[in-house]
Every structure is written in C-alpha cells, then in structure tokens.
Amino acid sequence: MIRRKTQDIAYWIHEYNIDEADHEFIYDLLADSDAPVSLEALALAIIRRHAEQEEHFLRNELAKAAIYDPKEAYQVGDAIYFPEFDFKKGEVLSIRPGNNPEHGEFDVITVMLEGEKKPRAFAARLQTPHKLNRDGETEVLLDEDLIPPEDIFETVRDVLLPKIESHLSEHEDYFVRAGDAWLTTDQLISVNIGHLNIAEALIEMEGAPVTTTQLLEHVELDPDMPESIRTFSLDMALQHDERFIRVNVGGKTAWYLRRLMPEAAVTIPEVLRYEPVTYDRSVLNVELLQVEYELQDEWSETPEAEAADEPPQSAIFNLIYPHYVAGTMPLTSTIRRMLPAAREGVTAITLVDGRWGSRFSGWVVHEGRYIAGLENWYKEHKLPIGARILFQPTGKPNEYLLDFKPQRAKRHWVRLAIVQGRKLVFQTQQKAINVDVDDQLLLSVGDPAAIEDLRQMVELEEYTVEDLVALIMPELVRMSPQGTAHVKALYSAVNLVRRLPPGPIFASLVQMPGAMDTGSGFWSL
Fold first, then answer.
1. What CA–CA distance (Å, rounded) separates 467 from 464?
2. Is-contact 298 330, C-beta < 8 A?
3. CB contact at 8 A, 46 and 61
4. Can you list the alpha helix ranges (DSSP code H) found in 302-354?
5. Is the separation of the CB atoms in 32 and 187 below 8 Å?
6. Cβ within 8 Å of residue 65, ≥6 positions away
7. Of 269, 319, 329, whose CA–CA distance to 443 is shortest?
8. How far is CA 444 from the centre of its chain?
9. Worst-scoring range by mean pLDDT, 295-309, 375-389, 400-414, 500-514?
10. Is the dihedral of CA 426, 429, 431, 433 positive or negative?
C-alpha cells in the first residue's frame, strides 16, 4: 500500500509549514463562515484538506502509470510506479534481452526514477516467480488503516496550533482574533466610539462584568448580520479599547472597566513578582519539607495532592507581607482546585466577609497566582502579617467565604522590621493581637516606604538568595534570647524585600556556613 505523507506524524511536526495555498484556504473558509472559527477547527480543516488533496493526487497519478510487476512487458517511454521505492515514478529509457538460463526468456528495462541521477535496471516479461510479482493485486490505496484527521490533530496539536496562530497573527491585515476565534477583517462590522461609550456606561451602571451578549442588547450594530459576527465585532472593538478588560465569570467571558478594578488585578505588583531561582532541593530534610508544605506558598514546588472527585471544602492561608501590601491572597494549589479552571487571564469571583456578611469583588490573576481585591478587607479587620485566614466556597456559584478566627485580645511580642542604612534590622515590641496568627510569621513594619526602597535596592543590585539569608538570619538570631530563629520567621522576613517561596530560602540556610539545626524548625549560627 502507498504510504501517504499526510499520514506521517513526523511530517506534521517537522516538515509542514503554511504556504500561500493554505493562507488562501483559511481566508476562504473564514469568509464563507457565518460565525467565528476556532484555531482548533482551522487546524483540523487544514489536516483534512491536505489528506484529501493527497488522496486525489495519488489516484490521478496511479491512473496515468502502471505499478511495476516483473511479469509485465513494458515499452520505452512507459511510466511505472515502484512500490519498493516508496512508490517513486520512473520512465523506461531502454529495453534489452535478459541473460540468465534459470529464468528463460525475459527483458531487462532501464528506468530513471524521479529524484535520482543514475538509471536502474529491472526485470520484465519474467516467467519465473519473483518476490515483486503482484499476483493480481490491483488496489494500492487501501483505506482501512488510515488515521482519521481528528486523531492526527490530537497528536500534533501542540506543534500545529502555534504555527497556525503565528501565521494568522503575522497577517493582521487579513485575519482578526477575538478570544479564541478568528474571522477575516472584511467580515468585521463597524463599531464606533459612540457604541463603546454606551458599553462603558452599561458596565459602570451594572457595577459588575457584563457579557458581550448582554451589551448587544443595548449597543445597536447592523441587525442584518448574524449575532455571532456582531458579537465578534464588538469583542474586537472592546479588546482594542484600553478602558475595557476581558474577564472570566463562571466559565463565561465578560467585560469590565480597568478603572473600577484594583491595580493588582490589572498589573502584577512588583512585590509579588517571583523570578524562579535554581537551588538544590535535595538538601532539605523532612522537617524543612514539612514546614514548606505547611506554609502553602503558591510558588512552592511541593507535589500537589491527587485530585479527588470533589474539590476541597476549605483552605487556610498565611498572610505574608507581599500579599498584605498588595491587597492580595495566595492562589495555593488547594485554593486553585476550588476555583473555575483557567490558566491565564483574570477571573471575577464574589468574596463574602465571614465576620460582617458583606460581599465584594475578588479578581483571580492566574498568571500571578493570586487573588486581588482584599486590601480594604485586611484594613477593616486590622489583620496583621502572619494572620491565618480561611477560604471556602459558600455553596453558591462563583462565591467564596473569607474569614479568620477571632480571639480575646492579648499582647504578643512582635518583630518590628526597620531599615537602618542599607540593612534590614529587627526590634521587638508588644502589640495587642485579637485574631489567630502564626507567631513565627508575625511581623510589623515601621516604615513601609523605607522597606519598599530597600526592596528596590535589593533588586537593582541583584542580591542573591544566599546574600539575603546571610544578612537577615543573623539579625533574627541576635534578637532571640535562645540565639535561634525559626525558618518560618526567616521566610517571612526575607519576603519583606524579595518575593521567594520557602524552598530556596531554606536551601540557602542549610548551606550557610555555621548554620545549625537545633530542632523543631529552629536554627542557630
């Protein structure tokens, strides 16, 4: 059977590239569609088109030439296909008598195969058995073993989709994208500034994200055009207007106003940006790994628990300084499993204050691994750095409870972080705390502006994790009567000036000269 190139997975992965014919095919397919077309649908259509074209070509070519069979007679100029050479086509250049008594009378034909420089010799009119005799076999294009286009697509999608997306994006004069779908530029309906102003007013009046379908009920576009085209055109216009931002709401796409969102929901704050660092996890002992797991840092490399049929019912997170100043909470692996699935963009959720019952908007920033919109909630309840906070679904769609465990106010010895020159130092002060906290994470900051200046200096001068641990750990040990500091306290303090998960901090401590594990998470120098 002839091996079809389009059945070869390696062809789609390593050889296939979009040519002019594919460009025109995509354009025509979109132009003929009454609705936007997804990238996946375009890729599948391309695979199917190439397979059909190849099938048509092969059947036409096979009708023009014979399949080589040593028993058959040939003439000079005859075209022949040779199955043993991957069905290359050849032309008979000459014929001479064969000379081998074992085979009796036969011919030797000289054939020039396509793509080769020297002719080859083959037997013809051969009366004795030969392994290449076809013995009446006529069908060389069998269909029963063909891989369906859908199966090919699933195998090559990770390579093929970026190729197609890249081509479409590079030809923005022809193709436009809104969300995950594509159309041609000629299909777009005109959306003017008046339409967009109406959309802005509607969203502001609603005070919550609004879907494009809802906006179209008030934004009057050409009623003779299909709703899908009107939706796409309005999406495109909103997408290119800085006033609007696309968000996910309960698995659906909606639009909101940037100016109504907290800054952290639009741009990842510098204090939350984590640049992954390389470190040796093998130096972390069981105790350190356990502490790392307890801290539930959203950037930790701890293995995620196997997903159960039901999502978790609740989660506790620790409030550390970067989230405190940014008004955010960590998107830990446990919390992530409670939320609608998404890997990018922003998802709007409703947060419910477990103390007062009030509702407010939360914004899940998937790329940054945090939820924004908690700044006022932290301030209203005067939550300290180190507070333990509960997060759990309320049972209503897209709604989650935020709560903490209140306790009778009592005075704690709290580490006060201050900046002296170019150095972070600590003092102790007594402070009344009326919520459940992790004493080792508990911190107070004397001058947030000075801490921010120090953070910028650390970034500008490219302090390593080892540099920070070497500067901060002695300060923590110095203020302890026992001459020790807990690894949680080190983690909390380092995060004042650089966003880091526990792993690299703990690894640097283990490898720090003179550092000694004294047990229960405490270390001395």
1. 5
2. yes
3. no
4. 321-326, 333-336
5. no
6. 78, 79, 80, 81, 89
7. 319
8. 37
9. 295-309
10. positive
Dihedrals phi, psi of 65, to nearest 5 degrees: -145, 160
For strands 346-353 and 399-404, give the pairing.
parallel
Tokens encoding 287: 């105790």
**If you average pLDDT over residues 285-305, what whole number do you get?**
89
CA distances for 235 relative to 29, 191, 202, 220, 366, angstroms: 21, 10, 15, 14, 22
Which of 123-137, 159-173, 194-208 shows the lowest mean pLDDT across its residues? 123-137
Instruction: Give percent above pLDDT 90 in the chain.
Output: 70
Query: Is residue 513 a contact partner of residue 491, using CB atoms and an 8 Å limit?
Result: no
Side-chain-side CA neighbours of 294 within 13 Å: the count stands at: 14
Cβ neighbors of 347 (< 8 A, separation 6 or more) are 247, 248, 249, 339, 340, 363, 364, 366
Question: For residue 490, which phi and psi values (nearest 5 degrees)?
Answer: -65, -45
Q: Which helix (H) or strand (E) holds 329?
A: strand 328-330
pLDDT computed for residue 69 by the predictor? 84
391 within 8 A of 315, measured Cβ to Cβ: yes
- Say what the pLDDT of residue 324 is: 97
| Nearest-angstrom CA–CA distance, 413 and 386 | 13
Q: How is residue 460 written in tokens?
A: 């500008």
Look-up: residue for tokens 């030969």?
Answer: 130
CATH of domain 188-260: 1.10.10.10
The arrangement of strands across the sheet holding 88-97 comes to 66-67, 79-82, 88-97, 107-113, 120-124
Helix (H) or strand (E) holding 95: strand 88-97
User: Exposed, middle or buried: residue 306 (CB in 10 Å: 0-12, 13-18, 19+)?
Assistant: exposed
User: What's the full length of the chain, in residues?
Assistant: 525
Rounded Cα distance, 452 and 445, in Å: 11
Confidence (pLDDT) at 304 = 61
Which residue in the block uniquely carries the two structure tokens 């029963």? 144
On the 0-12 / 13-18 / 19+ scale of CB atoms within 10 A, 121 is exposed
363/248 Cα distance (integer angstroms): 10
Q: Is the pLDDT of residue 136 over 60?
A: no
Q: Is 60 helix (H, G, I), strand (E, B) or coil?
A: helix
- Domain layout of the chain by residue ranges: 5-62+144-171, 70-124, 188-260, 286-407, 411-524
Order of strands across the sheet that contains 443-445: 423-435, 406-420, 443-445
The Cα–Cα gap between 118 and 355 comes to 88
Confirm if 61 and 89 have CB atoms less than 8 A apart: yes
DSSP-derived 3-state class of residue 256 = strand
The three-state secondary structure class of 225 is coil
- Interatomic CA distance for residues 218 and 209, integer angstroms: 15
- CATH 3.40.47.10 assigned to domain 286-407? The reply is no
pLDDT of residue 181: 86
